[in-house]
Amino acid sequence: MSPELLTWTIAAVATGGVIIRPFNWPEAIWAIAGALLLVGLRFLSPQDAWMGVAKGADVYLFLTGMMLLSEIAREEGLLDWLAAYATRYAAGSASRLFLMVYGVGTIVTVFLSNDATAVVLTPAVAAAMKTAKVEKPLPYLLICAFIANAASFVLPISNPANLVIYGSHMPPLLDWLPRYCLPSVASIAVTFLVLRWTQRREMQQAVATDVSVPPLSSSGRIAAAGIAVTGVVLLACSALDSQLGLPTAIAGALTALIVLGFERKMPWKTLRGISWGVLPLVAGLFVLVEALDKTGMISLVASFLQAAAQHSAADTAWGAGLVVALASNLMNNLPVGLIAGSAVQAAHVPGQVTRAVLIGVDIGPNLSVTGSLATILWLGALRREGLRVGAWAFLKLGFLIMPPALVLAITAASLFG
Fold first, then answer.
1. Which of 52, 53, 83, 291 is the Cys-Cys partner for 44 at CB 3.0 to 4.6 Å?
2. Looking at residue 78, what is its pLDDT?
3. How far apart are CA 233 and CA 142, in angstroms?
4. pTM, two decimal places
């Protein structure tokens, strides 16, 4: 077996381990094991492996800042307060409650990233459903999974995959908004309509009207202010065409320090509450993609994209968007995003193709439970609440929800030219 084929096999097995989690081992173990095996077998030099790790520096910093903000928001009860407020505002209406939770999920995804929606908002919604005495909480919890992907390209900060697709060529905010505003609206609206329709029978249930909203503490208000300031800083950095990782990490760390200082708390509990395994997972995936690049795979994909785009940019956009969306469910959108992003950057394809690829990476995972890291994290959050969603049940929903959202979003993106 040739070194190239062995490299592809190891990368495929490692990616499969990340998705399936054999023996219930953490996802990061499989990605790191694959990376170490490639280096140990000398299919990838240590220098090239380190180069792959280094390429993800901006993503690691971004994730660190967002995880700090999310954990502080959780600890200080900010998201619990938002979910309880939404439940109280529903005034006993299941439909209004669905709309309110969807709105909160959209806001959290847009300004805190899709992973925050999966990890932090899911338990907050579960707690709010218990307070509202909802017998069937699943329709509201499904919102957290689907909106985490559907709203993940409103802003560059809404999904770490956005940083991967564009790399160091992230469009400034004033360029991003007109390119992705209409596709995002289409994605969010269609996902809402189809999800609400599929849950119409489950929604025929009582919702308590005497829901108490826990008071938001002073530290919770500080956390909210820190998140708001972070959003402003990141929007400014995006407008100035600056990388987002370091500002996010600094803002997250400062917010955490201010809140912990105000509460006179030690940081250990906060640090233990963060899913640090996400960072080695992403680093391992960067190394796997670097190895694939050394085999010429990414160059081959880039050459194909470039040739296809020269023939017809519109057809290439549609084809790339659909293929990436489906591949994200077979391989998970993190490695697919890394491969597609590297190929797009190397091919210098028209903006229409890049937008379709990003939309495929972001919306495509709504088809299956294995599609995105956010959905995998959502499943973990459900398990901690004692709830289960089967892969087949999710796939049946995803088959109805994802395709129309993807098609309309790519259509809207093509209008920009």
1. 291
2. 85
3. 31
4. 0.85
Q: How confident is the model at residue 417 (pLDDT cuts 50, 70, 90)?
A: low
How big is the CA angle at 167 (ends 166 and 173), to the nearest 5 degrees?
55
Distance CA 34, CA 55 (A): 18
Q: Residue 168: its pLDDT value, please?
A: 67
In whole angstroms, what is the distance from residue 150 CA to residue 406 CA?
9
Residues 291 and 41 sit within 8 Å (Cβ to Cβ): no
**How remote is the C-alpha of 189 from its chain's centroid?**
18
Yes or no: say if 36 and 29 are a contact pair by the CB < 8 Å rule: no
Highest mean pLDDT among 47-61, 89-103, 193-207, 355-369: 355-369
- Please say whether the beta carbons of 40 and 292 come within 8 A: no
Check: CB of residue 322 under 8 Å from CB of residue 358: no
pLDDT of residue 59: 84
Q: Check pLDDT > 70 for residue 390.
A: yes
The Cα 92–Cα 399 span in angstroms is 31
CA dihedral 360, 363, 368, 374 (to 10 degrees): 110
Could you tell me the CA-to-CA distances from 325 to 149, 340, 410 in Å, in that order? 12, 11, 11
- At 227-280, the pLDDT tens digits run 889 888 877 887 777 778 899 899 999 999 999 999 888 998 888 888 888 899
User: What amino acid is encoded at 313 in this protein?
Assistant: A
Q: Are 358 and 333 in contact (CB under 8 A)?
A: no
d(CA 213, CA 187): 31
Residue with tokens 């299919």, as numbered in its chain = 43
